[in-house]
Amino acid sequence: MDREAEILQLSSQRLLAFKDKHKGERCVIIGNGPSLNRMDLSFLKQEICFGVNKIYLGFQQWDFLPKYYIAVNPLVIQQNADQISQIPSIKFISNRGIPYLEPQEDLIFIRTHPDNGKPFCSNPIDGLQEGNTVTYVAMQLAYYMGFETVILIGIDHHYIAAGKPHAEVVSQGEDLNHFHPDYFGPGVRWHLPDLAGSERFYKIAYAYFWVNDRQIIDGTVGGRCAVFPKGDYQELFFLAWLKFFQYFLNLLIELGLFYLVKRVSKIERETRKLICLSL
User: Can you give the pLDDT at residue 248?
Assistant: First the structure.
């Protein structure tokens, strides 16, 4: 057995622990589009999140760490292996990254290349479909973990770049396609996106979730992907907490009024006794 096969076999055994680990829960898949800079991301601390690629550039600014991290693209892994290895999250890395990353306790390798021929893979032990975007890998992992609702943010689905999809290019300046100017900054090699190809797989993911009574909601601010139903992230996250707070506050008020009524009744009884005694 060669080194890659041995590493993948060990990783497959560890993947078993994640089967339905979050059954019935919701999660957030964070794309890295510039729309993240237009959001109040404080809610992320209360959510189970999947971060991808160079999301670590925002950790300090957002004061936040995702529970799970995913990287698939070989150029991303190769050029950022040191930073990826230091991310204090559970990491799921494509077998493309085996030459660049050493096995770690919190790192699990998954076969994505070559894929197993399935358009949507519900069991990562059999490998996952890359679907032209790392966020598609995140959707398959979220399904395997049992999440009922997946909310997308930062998936702008728009690039200021021209050329053949998947072509390798070298950045000549600040990155305007992501939330941080150094994401694919000067001199960084990266692959041009395949937005049409991504959409084809997104439709498959949406259908797979839907027929199994699960859902994917796109909460991206100003996102141009038309595959998933849209949702206002403030309503999805902040208003949910606000409604819970209002319910809790109303409960306290009701309990407080009940206590106050009992207290007034007791005072009234004691007053009546004193009046009777003074007569």
Answer: 72
